[in-house]
Amino acid sequence: MSRSSPSHLPSFGPPPSASAISAGLADLLHPRKSRQRATILCLLSLVAVTAYVCLVSQPALAPALSSHHGTPAGAEDAWLKWAARFPAAHPAPKPRPEITLSPEEELGAVTAFMAALPQNIIPPGIDATRPIDPQLVLDFDTRSQRAEAEVAEVVSDVWFRNPVVVFSKLYSPASRELKSTLDAMELRPAPTVFDVDDRADADVLIPLLYRLTNTTELPILLIGGTPIGSMDAIRELDASGQLKALVTRAGAVLDGSKRRRKGRR
Fold first, then answer.
1. Rounded distance, CA 205 to CA 211, Å?
2. Are β-strands 226-227 and 220-223 bridged in parallel, bridged antiparallel, or unpaired?
3. Cβ neighbour number for residue 142 with a 10 Å cutoff
4. CB of 66 within 8 A of CB of 59?
5. Which of 38-42, 137-141, 167-171 has the lowest mean pLDDT?
């Protein structure tokens, strides 16, 4: 009885690994779920790549592609139409420069600032030899489009309300003489008097007034916002009757307090 040779025995490959067995079991148990997951992952990847190309890469790559390979006909127009759907960001407006006051405007602004409230003082740290910062004496935005018009209103209003203004020294003989001359006119409205040397900001205010009025001593008389000059000039104007004419022209009424008392009787 003959035996079969080894060449007729069946051959077997290497034994399968554990991971292959697990994957096979998963496919056998849940074949549909694994295919669905793969399909979903592919779709999500495709959506992500498409969004990146359309929203991020395309604006940056468009110039390079057009310069090296040429732009297909109509592609640039289509891109411009698509980009036109989104509103363009408007550049921020440049800040307007702050207005610069002339000496006449600066004098009016300082006087209005002082006349508004007794406690309004000029800051001690400013340089009185240079134009004052408008924000220190004006209560509006000096960089706005209406700043120049508002300055003109402030200046016009302060001289309308205060046609006669005196910057004086409290214990000065010349200041007492000027006050007496004006009191004799019985003005309405009464002169606005600032005893400068009695103020907390005297060290800054006095040289500031000297610069703005082109004078070198107190008292300083303003009629309608215009400096009249030294005491000698004021005496000459008073003696000739021109001082009363200037006061009347500025809007003050002579003997106004007497007329008011007579009207009340």
1. 10
2. antiparallel
3. 21
4. no
5. 38-42
Q: Give pLDDT, residue 20.
A: 54
- Quote the pLDDT of residue 96: 63
Sign of CA pseudo-dihedral 68, 71, 72, 75: positive
Rounded-to-integer distance, Cα 75 and Cα 62, Å: 10
Q: For residues 223 and 247, is the Cβ–Cβ distance under 8 A?
A: yes
**Which residues, in sequence order, are bridge partners of residue 167?**
194, 220
pLDDT tens per residue, range 138-153: 988 888 889 999 999 9
Structure tokens that stand for 182 in this block: 């004006």
Closest CA to 203 of 125, 143, 145, 132: 125
- Residue whose token pair is 């057009």: 66
- Give CA separation, 138 vs 132, 160, 180, 232, in Å: 11, 18, 32, 34
Task: Report residue 147 as tokens.
Answer: 């700043």
- Diameter of the chain by CA atoms? 167
pLDDT bucket at 203, cuts 50 / 70 / 90: very high
Identify the three-state secondary structure at position 1.
coil
Whole-number average pLDDT of the chain: 80
* Helix (H) and strand (E) counts in the chain: 12, 4
Threshold 0.85, pTM exceeds: no
DSSP helix/strand/coil, 30: coil
Residues 6+ apart with CB under 8 A from 249: 224
Find the mean pLDDT for residues 112-116: 96
Strand partners, 253: 188
Residue 46 one-letter amino acid: L
3-state SS assignment for residue 222:
strand
